[in-house]
Amino acid sequence: MGQKVHPIGFRLGISKMHLSHWFAQKEDYSKYLFEDNLLRKTLQKRYNGIEKIEISRKIEDHLEIKIYTEKTDILIGPRGENLTKFQQEIKQILQKHRKNSSRKVRLYVLGSSQTSASASFIADFLIDLLEKRIPYRRALNLLFNRKLKKLQFNGVKIQISGRLNGAEIARREWRREGALPLQTLNANIDYISKQAHTIYGILGIKVWFFHAPTPAGS
Description:
Elements: E1 20-21, H1 26-46, E2 50-56, E3 62-69, H2 73-76, H3 83-97, E4 104-110, H4 119-131, H5 136-147, E5 153-162, E6 171-178, E7 189-198, E8 201-211
Parallel strand pairs: 1-2, 3-4
Antiparallel strand pairs: 2-3, 5-6, 5-8, 7-8
Helix pairs in contact: 1-3, 4-5
């Protein structure tokens, strides 16, 4: 029986950084932890295409949020005209958790390059195809032949589990391309686990993505 280790948690402090940056006293730790989790789950449920959310606190009632997304237009509009509205929406989410609390929220929405990607973007692309009732083999072919051809990476592995194509018995299928050194701590490997809701039930999607090394001097 194998021992499974989370690819990102395995590399924290070496090649991966924490998504929350703050220090809290014992009586405040659970409050901040629940607040971060509520904020991430609510935003990722309302908006598709969010790669990750970084949260940092320097002092009490001061919150800095960085949202990485493939399409910034969905969050702030084509020219950023909805940025203030989106910032107020975040304050309302936090207000439900901590009432009668005035805080300063500094928001950054960052886009990504067309030649780079993450495990989250790949999973969202695959989920969109599967939820449109496209067979999983065809969805994988579209992903590898169209989406991944435009990206720079060293290796990728994708696993789909559940009632594939409406089969009576659930099974697991996976596809891999390139190198994927899961035991190398310095390897920049991104990982995500998501779900696709189809008419046959829920399909589990897991993506391991090995980023290409950054060119020297960039």
